[in-house]
Amino acid sequence: MFDNPKHVFWQAFVAAVIVFVFGIWMGFLLENYRTSQAGIAYSRSEVDLTDVRLQSEIYRHQEIDCSTSVRENVLFADRIYEEAKTLDQQKQANQLTDDIVYQHKKYDLLRTIFWLNSISIRNACNSSYHTIVYFYQYQNPDLDKKAEQGVVSNVLKDLKEKYGNQVLLIPLAADNNLTSITLLRSYYHINTLPTVLIDEKVAVEGLVTLDDLEKKMLAAPSQKRDLFAKKDEPVFDVPL
User: Fold this and answer.
1) pLDDT digits (tens, 9 = 90+) for 112-124
2) Residues contacting residue 215 through CB under 8 Å, at least 6 positions apart
3) Tell me, which fold does domain 5-219 have in CATH?
4) What is the pLDDT of residues 32-73, one digit of tens each?
5) Separation of first and last alpha carbons in the chain
6) Hey, which of 87, 127, 155, 204 would disulfide with 122, CB 3.0 to 4.6 Å?
7) How do the domains of the chain map onto residue ranges?
């Protein structure tokens, strides 16, 4: 009528072993998947970084077709924005290893060069899109800083969704020990994180609402926002 207690014990033991082995196997598959995805992202970042450098050279030394340049620049902006979100998801799912930090630095460099290219195109073609550069803390933010940056990130996402191609949203880790970003922070007096830089003219520190950010963006001058230029002198080429 009742099972032998020894049989029950061995059945439970075998079941536990099966569950344990299955868990290890699933963990192995998941880790392999993450490694594979990281490898794909790394290769893509290599291609994108080379591509954006070549774009910069073309914009500096060749006559450009404005309609094509603006269109391709906006498409490139949207793509690297989506890749930035994917990279942040990978960061949340994994520990902050040296490989992940290094990969993030490459994307920060890519976005920085893209930002400078965007300024060149906007000046040369009299385009009216807005550059919204989001400087944030990447290395070991505390809980309050994470919460604050989470709010700002959501506001920026809402702004991007509302204005679409009229807004180029460029997130940059401001504390990743990259000289180029340090120089830009110094130039624009970015001393507080997070800070949102609107069209190279207006810096908004800390928490901000969508309404306030939108008003500041629409109030900013729409053209000829120069970088490293002499005062009142238009720039059509951004040195790298």
Assistant:
1) 988 998 998 888 8
2) none
3) Glutaredoxin (3.40.30)
4) 555 555 555 656 666 776 777 777 777 776 677 888 888 888
5) 84
6) 127
7) 5-219
